[in-house]
Design goal:
11 strands; 3-stranded antiparallel β-sheet; globular; Cytochrome p450; 17 helices
Length: about 400
């Protein structure tokens, strides 16, 4: 049962030690940490997102659904919270208010989401498939004769980078600055400088499209009837970059790691799209690329699962932990797409079909071209990037028999 406290009631909140989500220990084995959390706290966990920055992590599936579908009591606008957060806080750029759909509520949210949906809705999925195929083949041909590569730096990142450039109509130089800035914000290292770099790059992209419109998502946003100003344009594009590069890169890499190390998938790597889609679904359940996000800020203290959530303190949905809640896990995940990897409710990701098409095409192209690819190091030696939000490998080195360049009729 959920109860809103009366205006005069002081929030009880949590007492005692909070779990740090920014440590290397958490990054190495988050599922162990989630299991320990569940034993100690239940569905709501007191955490620190950075030193001295408290939040509540939701690890119960049904509690998460309740919150995600209740934007009135759990709005996404952080402006009251950020008044008490120093400007140099490493996670502030990932959480601060921006005039876009993910950080707004009510009429503003509807306005920004309408523009984004319209822009994404004009993407030709057949043309997108051809774009991914063309870029994947070019990248594979750049390393196929070497017999080894790093999937993160030599394949997944440049593939997503190039595809997003095409979708947004962005030059490689502007996009490079935007991607560098966004990566700094995700890693919470030099996040303020990353935020500045991102803003400057996207403002330049906006000006370019106002002067030279084209058939791309940026132009469609510029020309949408809601008439986004330059600042609003920057933050719509920041959302597209944030959702389009880091999470999608991690989805491709994490899925390939599963397929290369799990016998259930390794035995059918050549099985085509079904095996790949099964692997994607399993990763979206077990190791979603955004492990903890979907942030809201209760307007007043609220009682959820016998815990008072303090007013204006961040409530973070752990998609990874909620998807693994014993209450909903029933074993086989085949064709089961009830995960929260793309969120739920009014803030659910509108680009899910686009993301899955890109990820599946990227994986299929690589495995078709290099069917004998295998992990080049022991799985336990792989390093995960610290950070409270993402589930991301630093690198994924693979090896394969050197092969000749790939040529496809459609490329």
């Amino acid at each position: 049962m959920e109860i809103e406290s009366p205006p005069y009631a002081a929030p009880i909140g949590f007492v005692g030690e909070r779990v740090a989500l920014y440590t290397g220990e958490y990054a190495v084995d988050p599922h162990r940490v989630y299991r320990e959390m569940r034993c100690r706290f239940g569905s709501l966990v007191p955490v620190e997102l950075a030193p001295g920055v408290p939040a509540t992590l939701v690890i119960g599936y049904y509690a998460a659904l309740s919150i995600l579908n209740d934007p009135k009591r759990f709005p996404a606008d952080p402006r009251v919270w950020e008044r008490g957060i120093p400007a140099d806080c490493p996670i502030r750029p990932m959480m601060e208010w921006r005039p876009n759909a993910i950080r707004s509520a009510g009429v503003d949210h509807a306005r920004y989401r309408a523009a984004t949906l319209a822009g994404l809705g004009k993407i030709d999925l057949h043309q997108l498939h051809a774009t991914v195929e063309r870029m994947a083949v070019a990248l594979i041909n750049s390393f196929c004769a070497d017999g080894h590569c790093d999937i993160v730096g030599q394949y997944a990142l440049p593939l997503i980078f190039g595809t997003l450039n095409t979708i947004l109509g962005c030059s490689p130089e502007i996009s490079r600055r935007a991607a560098t800035g966004m990566a700094a914000m995700f890693d919470t290292i030099d996040a303020a400088e990353g935020n500045r770099m991102l803003r400057e790059a996207l403002l330049e992209l906006t000006w370019t499209k106002r002067e030279n419109p084209d058939d791309d998502v940026t132009t469609h946003l510029v020309e949408h009837p809601v008439q986004l100003n330059d600042e609003e344009m920057v933050h719509q594009l920041a959302l597209l970059y944030g959702a389009g590069i880091e999470p999608l890169q991690n989805l491709i890499v994490n899925t390939l790691l599963l397929m290369l190390t799990d016998e259930r998938f390794a035995a059918s790597v050549l099985g085509g799209s079904l095996a790949t889609r099964d692997a994607l679904d399993e990763v979206l359940f077990n190791d979603p690329p955004m492990a903890n996000y979907c942030i809201s800020y209760p307007r007043q203290s609220i009682l959820i699962d016998n815990v008072w959530l303090p007013a204006h303190e961040p409530v973070i949905i752990s998609m990874a932990a909620c998807n693994n809640d014993p209450v909903i896990r029933s074993g086989d995940l085949t064709d089961n797409r009830s995960h929260l990897a793309f969120s739920a409710g009014p803030h659910a990701c509108p680009a899910q079909p686009i993301a899955l098409l890109i990820a599946q095409d990227a994986i299929d192209q690589l495995l078709d071209a290099l069917p004998d690819v295998e992990l080049a190091v022991a799985r336990e030696t792989l390093q995960w990037r610290p950070g409270p939000f993402h589930r991301a490998l630093i690198s994924l080195p693979v090896a394969f028999p050197p092969s000749s360049p790939v040529y496809l009729d459609s490329v």
